[in-house]
Amino acid sequence: MGKSVFLSEMSRFMRQQGMSLRTEKTYIHWVKRYIRFNKLAHPLDLTDEDVVRFLSHLANDCNVAINTQKTALNGIAFLYNQFLKRPMGDLGFHYAKQGRRLPDVLSMQEVASILSFMNDRDRLIFSLLYGSGLRISECLRLRIKDIDFDKAALTVCDSKGNKDRKTILSKSLFSELKKYIQASIELQTADNEKGIGPSMPFALGRKYPNAFRMPAWMFLFPSTGFCRHPVTDEMCRHHLHDSVSRKALKAAVARAHILTKRVNCHTFRHSFATQLLSSGRDIRTVQELLGHSDVSTTQIYTHVLGEHFAGTESPVDRMLASS
Predict the structure, then answer these.
(1) Would residue 25 show up in a list of annotated catalytic residues for this protein?
(2) Domain coordinates in residue numbering, the chain
(3) Which of 34, 95, 109, 231 has the most CB atoms less than 10 A away?
(4) Is the pTM of the predicted complex or chain greater than 0.70?
């Protein structure tokens, strides 16, 4: 089933609300699956019980993770509460309890080993993930305007939860960053001669139609080719796709012979947090740098550290030291 008139109207409504394209795509996906599950019935003809049946189907028949169920419910809740203006009642649905899983983290030596097997571009990308605590999507969306050399800071725009935040920028990366900024500007200049520029947020591109010619809006890590803008359908250059970085990481981890840890792009963000906590940074500061809305999310990293971020010592160590 392609995008129907109904779903197209929902997409337009979400854009009017200023929601990100990523959120729009996710919500449309789950609403589409919800409609399909109910044999193409119109959502207004369905009840809260139909929503619960769908969520149970995801859990029991599709074996999706709890967070996936929550995302699906968020999409359906938006459908009814915001778009259709028919608020859902108390569903009485309870998720299965999910045990806490501690993330794998890398030591500084392991990070250095992985980076040594990457080309210049990928090394810079993963150095930013590790040095600034970025998600891979946040890193690849960086534009030149987001880099502040004077304050050694990065601005992460439209992050998870549609929030902006500031985080630290390693001074050791300044030279490499300036090289990539210059290369990006040169590419933008060549693109502009063809009437093409970086993909722009739709509302801003409409208000400032020549903004795509401004270096500030050029991506730091642009894609190698052109594509159609998902809203305007105009030719543009988007940022590098995250699959490119994931492929580079997989190859580098194999060459670094790191076999006992599950390493993905997010592992570098986990490692950033644990390194800061182990070096004595307070948890509230780390929370702000990561962009967590709740400090309890950040506290998971205190459990990753063997000695905890406050320097807690094992009683055995004290016993042996005094004997």
Answers:
(1) no
(2) 5-83, 142-238
(3) 34
(4) yes
